[in-house]
Amino acid sequence: MLCRLKHALLTDNVNLKYQPVYSTFSQKIVGFEALLRWHDPHLGRICPEKLVKLASSNGLMDTVSVYVIKKAIAQMADVMKHHHLFLSLNVDPGDLIADSFKKILLLELARHQLSPSSVLLEITEVPCHQPDALTSNAMLLAQRGFKIALDDFGKGCSDFDRLLALPVSDVKIDRALTHALFTRDASQQQVLGMCSRLYQLPYRLIFEGVETEEQFAFLSAHFPHALAQGWYFSKAVSIEDVHRLMFRQICMES
What is the pLDDT of residues 156-181, one digit of tens each? Predict the structure, then answer.
């Protein structure tokens, strides 16, 4: 499988899909998250978690990260500029620590005439053995104008201490917490209290896993300046469908 992944990366046969991110206030698309998708002719569909684990355990994560940066920015540049959207990219701590990552990211943005402020870097939940280097490099990226999000908050080792240690502009609420807001038991008030506390701090909340109209209505009422994504709006789509979604949004505004 590792050999097939290397070949797929070299021949540009790993795809990207884009999940729209909506404003709870305007109910319009404000950005897209780039997501890896790999369908091997012989092995079939490989789940993204397995792909990332395979790449990470075999020293291939840098290659995957560069591949995603170049492909996502190239595909999304025109629609980002035309519609003033942000592009969300998943990165692990190793990416932020590596100087080569920052150089390639800035080079690709310059190539396509995009501002760092149009990119949201989502830090994924994996252990980091160089926390000081992670924090300092994240600070440098934030000073450049990049937005930085803590991904999957409420899952794994996420906590307020880690949040406050990083120059985070956005907090992505894990889908499990989003769903817990609608359990109608003791955990509901606990989760609502935690999200409300974050909302009152200088962070933008992004709720993942929104699946029903009821959920979106609740978020709009309680967190009107938050963002949301999930299957209620749309699954992750191809770049062609990104353009169709934006054309449909323009038509609805007319």
Answer: 555 566 666 789 999 999 999 999 99
User: Which residue, among 222, 229, 183, has the nearest Cα to 206 in the 3D structure?
Assistant: 229
CA distance 110 to 247: 26
CB 109 within 8 A of CB 89: no
Handedness of CA 228, 233, 235, 236 (dihedral sign): negative
Residue 211's identity, in one-letter code, is E
H or E segment to which residue 204 belongs: strand 204-207
- Residue 103 phi/psi, 5-degree rounding, is -65, -45
> For 114-172, how does the pLDDT look when each residue is reduced to its tens digit (9 = 90+)?
999 999 999 876 666 777 888 899 999 999 999 999 988 877 555 566 666 789 999 99
Q: Are 116 and 146 in contact (CB under 8 A)?
A: yes
* Residue 50: partners with Cβ closer than 8 Å, 6 or more residues away: none
Answer for the pair 87, 147: CB distance below 8 angstroms, yes or no.
no
DSSP 135-163: HHHHHHHHHHT-EEEEEEETSTT--HHHH
Identify whether the C-beta of residue 17 lies closer than 8 Å to the C-beta of residue 37.
yes
* pTM listed for this prediction: 0.94
Quote the tokens at residue 206: 């992004």
